[in-house]
Design a protein that fits this description.
The chain is mainly alpha-helical. Helices cover about 45% and strands about 10% of the residues.
């Protein structure tokens, strides 16, 4: 956030009329499939889920989700991985017990790799699983809000 604020201020100092807004939360919500790489989630949800059942596609997806990319926003990676993704909005009643748990908690409970647990959960919920991705820090949030308020926050 300090880097972004500095960029905005530099543009203003050079005479540009710059304004900005910010999302004032440490987490953002989204269904799981839209948060994935477009290359393996294209098409209608049923075909996307079929691809997720394919071992080669699944392995590729796991590899992609485990690292940062410059051509797409990897929310799983940006949130710090399994501990930073909270499941929210399961529709399948048989797995509703996982609502409100992180992927790390679910994986530990199931004794699975976190990405395997996540993909199994998404398949069981037919692609409808929602998640909260904790991608911002409290410090950055405070710093950004201080720019708006022009005074330190408690």
């Amino acid at each position: 956030m300090p880097k972004i604020v500095a960029m905005i201020q530099a543009a203003r100092d050079s005479g540009q009329d710059v304004s900005a807004d910010m999302y004032p939360y440490v987490a953002g919500g989204l269904r799981w499939l839209p948060a994935c790489h477009l290359g393996w989630r294209t098409g209608a949800c049923p075909s996307c889920l079929e691809r997720l059942r394919d071992p080669a596609t699944r392995a590729k997806a796991k590899g992609e989700m485990a690292s940062e990319h410059h051509d797409w926003e990897n929310l799983y990676f940006a949130s710090g991985g399994a501990g930073g993704v909270l499941v929210s909005g399961i529709e399948n009643p048989t797995i509703k017990k996982f609502d409100g748990k992180t992927i790390a908690q679910i994986a530990a409970e199931q004794k699975k790799d976190p990405l395997e647990a996540l993909m199994d959960l998404v398949l069981a919920d037919k692609g409808q699983t929602g998640a909260l991705y904790f991608i911002a820090s409290e410090d950055d949030l405070r710093y950004g809000l201080q720019q708006i308020l022009d005074q330190p926050l408690p």
